[in-house]
Every structure is written in structure tokens, then in C-alpha cells.
Amino acid sequence: DRQTKIAPSILSADFANFGAECRALEAQGADWIHVDVMDGHFVPNITFGPQLVKAIRPHVKTVMDVHLMIAPVDPYIEAFAEAGADILTAHVEAGPHVHRTLQAIRAAGMKAGVALNPGTPAEAVAPLLDDVDLVLAMTVNPGFGGQKFIEATLPKIARLREMIGDREVHLQVDGGVDAASAPKVVAAGADVLVAGSAVFRGGSVEQAGVYGENIGAI
Ligand code: DX5
Ligand code: ZN
């Protein structure tokens, strides 16, 4: 049995009130807090870095799930570990030595995730599955919140679940997850749903409709 987890993305939070926003998400039952780090180079937007993770860490006990949309990754791994990140996810497209990066993330004491853009085939992560704790299938092109869910990613999610097999590896989806797309990604095999605009537009985790009776345990 896999229990679906919800990881609200603070990309859609009030940037002047991160502490309060994170406490509210925890109170609403967020399983993880998803932190989108963007560098204006790997993706066409800039957000925040390890200092923000360090600043929000004392406000919540929630798992701190950090999604790096940066290149290179390796020079920043230690800083995210020190800041209190629990899971650090790097993109398979972010550099030529992703396997080394994943090893370095684990060596720094964090769980390691590997992310794939919508245009990257599932097979790109096949050689990495024994060295990760999480696979993140992007369901929009990374860079911005509030984009439309790309339906064509659904077969890839199913393929990734099949490839993961009986490994203890989470399959996370990120982008355009709302009450309409959440049941589809869960049916395809996802067990961790990132939701930014759906949570903050709805006013709460529950009202986003990506949790609770809409999904439940599968
Ligand atoms: C997009 C980010 C997402 C983003 C999702 O590049 O990785 O985590 O916050 O936002 P929504 O749920 O609004 O698509
Ligand atoms: Zn993300």
C-alpha cells in the first residue's frame, strides 16, 4: 500500500511571510514542504537558495523537500545540507555527472532525488534507480508556478512506476497538479504530489482538492 503524500510548493506563498506560510501548511497537514530553487540559468526564473531553507527550518517539523532547478549542483550540496534540507533533488539534465551528484547528496546526509523535464524520456533515469530515494517527473516545464498540466506526461509516470518496481523510491509529480489532474497522476503511479497554485489559490491544502477523499490511500 502506498499512501499519497502532498508537498505544497512555497513558490506560490507570500514571499514576505515564509515562516507563517510554512506553519500554516504544516497545520493543514502538509506532509512535506517543497522548496523550488531556481538560478535564472537552468530555468528562466530566480527564486531563493539555502539561506531560505535555513530560515524556515525552525518554523516546522515537516520534511523539507528541496527541488534544485540549478546548474551546476555540486558546489551547493553542502550548503543545503547545513541549512536543514531533508531531500535534495537534482535534474538529470543539469549536468554530465548526475550519478556523482546523487552520491554526493547522500554522502552529505540527505535523501537524493532525480528530476526529469517533460521532454526527457523515463529511460534517462534507469541507471540511477538504485542510487535515489525519489524520482520527480515534471508535469510542466520548470520555472514558474501556475502552468497547465501536460497530459502527455501520464504514460511516462506509469513507465517510471513500472521501472521503480519494488524499490523504496518515491515517485513525485510537480506542475499543474490540481483537483482535476491529481487523480490521474495517482492512477498512473505517483505517490507524492507537489502543488503550488492549487493550494494557495484554494486557500488551504484541503481546499486544493489534491488530498483527502479525492485521492485517499491507494
Ligand atoms: C515549477 C516548480 C513547481 C511549481 C508548481 O517549476 O517546480 O514546484 O511550484 O506550481 P503549480 O502547482 O502552480 O504548477
Ligand atoms: Zn518543484
UniProtKB/TrEMBL annotation:
Catalyzes the reversible epimerization of D-ribulose 5-phosphate to D-xylulose 5-phosphate. GO terms for biological process: pentose catabolic process; pentose-phosphate shunt. Its EC number is 5.1.3.1. CDD domains: RPE. Pathway: Carbohydrate degradation. The lineage of its organism: Bacteria, Pseudomonadati, Pseudomonadota, Alphaproteobacteria, Rhodobacterales. Its cofactor is Zn(2+); a divalent metal cation; Mn(2+); Fe(2+). Belongs to the ribulose-phosphate 3-epimerase family. It is an enzyme of class 5 (isomerase). GO terms for molecular function: D-ribulose-phosphate 3-epimerase activity; metal ion binding. Substrate binds at residues 9, 67, 143-146, 174-176, 196-197. The keyword Plastid does not apply. GO terms for cellular component: cytoplasm. This is Ribulose-phosphate 3-epimerase. It catalyses: D-ribulose 5-phosphate = D-xylulose 5-phosphate. Binds 1 divalent metal cation per subunit. It comes from the Bacteria.
